[in-house]
Amino acid sequence: MRATSRAHLREAGESYVQHLRFAVGVGLMLMAAGLACIIHGIFPGFCTRTASRTVDELRRLFAERSALAAALQQASGALTLVGLVILTLPAWALLLLAPGYPVPIVTALFALAIPFAYLCSNPQLEPVD
Description:
It is built from 7 helices and no strands. It is mainly α. Helix 2 (about 15-40) runs antiparallel to helix 3 (about 50-65) and helix 6 runs antiparallel to helix 7.
């Protein structure tokens, strides 16, 4: 496994940290595009171009790996939403720990209000300055 990893890093021309940063950035951008597609499917007025804009950035990024910072900036609106949704996961975990009790349900719904408010204030998930 180590030999394969080293060979891959040599092939990519990157250090481990550079490769990690690139791969995590791409993974987060893919999550953002997927979440935007789901939101758009449920509410067609939201995220009308977010996924396609993010995929265009990914295509450019794979052609020019050094453009990671610019690609992440262009996807920052969608990445912010992903981060806010991830922050709601502990509240949703309460539902698994205490099923049927009203407090975890209210907590989980309240936690979703934060990413929902962000989405309403930036419905196309434009880049954040």
